[in-house]
Amino acid sequence: MSREKAKQAGTIRTLLKSVRQYKKPSLITPIFMAVEAFCECLIPFFMALMIAKINVDGITSQQAMRRILTYGGVMVGLAILSMTSGVMAGRFAATASCGFAANLRHDLFYKVQKFSFSNVDKFSTSSLVTRVTTDVTNVQQSYQMCLRIVIRVPLQFLFAIMMSFIINPKLAWIFLAIVPILGVLLIAIMRFVMPFFRKIFKKYDALNNSVQENVGGIRVVKSFVREDHETKKFEKAAGEVRNDFTKAEKILALNNPIMTFFINVAATLIAFFSVYAIVDKTHWAAYKGFGAGQLSALISYGIQMLSCLMMFSMIFVMLSMSIESARRIAEVLNEESDIVSPENGVTEVKDGSIRFENVNFKYSAKAAKFALSDIDLDIKSGETVGILGGTGSSKTTLIQLIPRLYDATEGEVYVGGINVKDYDLDTLRREVSVVLQKNVLFSGTIKENLRWGDENATDEEIERVCKLAQADEFIRSFPDGYDHYIEAGGTNVSGGQKQRLCIARALLRKPKVLILDDSTSAVDTKTDALIRHAFAQEIPNTTKIIIAQRVASVESADKILLLDGGKIVACGNHSELMKNSAIYREIYEAQTKGKESEEGGEA
Fold this sequence. Notes:
The protein is built from 19 helices and twelve strands. By secondary structure, it is α/β, with parallel strands linked by helices. The strands form three sheets. A six-stranded mixed beta sheet has the order 6-9-10-3-11-12. A four-stranded antiparallel beta sheet has the order 2-1-4-5, with no helix packed on it. It has a two-stranded antiparallel ribbon with strand order 7-8. Mean pLDDT is 83; it is low at 282-287 and 597-603.
């Protein structure tokens, strides 16, 4: 078996695991299809018998009518059985294919939920969306087609060939001779088409990415009057998909004309030899007993073969598309998360102490340089730690190692005195709450969003954390208060309100470590100060790590880290850094002078 065929076999095995509870309808469908195909092939045979039986010399009209009714009744029965089998096959195929698609989407979504950040980065968000939607739909259609047509076509074609040989072996060879020719042509067409479909699905990802970026950032697009630019970008992506599809469809369009031509040639030859045999029996001894009924049956079988080949070409078209879709789906299903819980992982975090030992990190093994280098850090439980640094200094990267959103490339990270790799992931992430730089709220009420922190939280607990996060006041200003509906992404609340709600959500988890990744950048300095004061008073035993751009946000911290180029270039409290760090002093003075000049201007 070639490498390519082995890959395809592995892909099919991976996808078939998602059939599960739909195995029964998947197995029943081919049985009904076999019955339907068998009945359809018997009808022309009985038609030929009927014509032959009523064209016997000396038969009376009553005998002829009796034979017509007998054979006609058999054919009607076969037609009813064929129709019933077709309907039942359709019902079971629909159940099996839709259920299979539902399982595939479930398995894909479940798999993605288990991915680490690096796994998601590998595929990209837009590509994962395409795989869960477009690719699964392609596979679903192919699966339904396979259950019905892939079983029916070979069986009906085989039955038609067999019945043709029963009626007249010599003429049946004409049909059989064209099959290899058509097979070679279909394989050649498929070889030409497959590369186009591989390119198409990559361009689908780019198309989805364009739509996702535009819709997600529609406010920015409008504020910068970039609608025309975004429209052109979308048109380019859509045009590339259209062009590749057009090229593929032009090649696939050759299927039907080629098959129709060869089948028509075969039917013409059969008609010629058959008619000649009927007219001049003396020179065609091999066709003794061959009459109009047999000719009618042969032509019917020829039409059935043409129909089978037409359907077979449809299968080729669909499979050409779905093979690439199936490969992309299997790629996700076979992907193993870089970060998994160990067997018998630790299920309790003792305290909020954190230690980094000789930590180096890079996002990819192929990356030329480390994003973090030589990180040695010791944070006591309950301490407040501030992190400052310019854009690209890897502040966010540093804190993402604590809840194992990424794993350190070299060195170790400890929480509560235990290596983070030894913890059960759910336990670790429940005790290390992160309010990420990109705050995300989901469609639903404020209460529903906050209960992501603790689904069993009481209304009193929700109100308490909202007061800590300085969110209670603006929430009560809404007509529905805590039942106010939040649109997807939190588009109907301001940036500062969104940040405070996300902080409250994290607090509701009652974590041992709370990380705020520049999560108060959209609130005013007074509110920022109130939040920090509430933290100091209400959660003194929780370790608090605050990434900020404003020195004022971390000035009162027990320890302040200054990052530059992925390294800790200074560490200490505010007083120590003012004495020992020129960079910190420069940042502080620049921000303080800016603030003083603003106040002077206002005066």
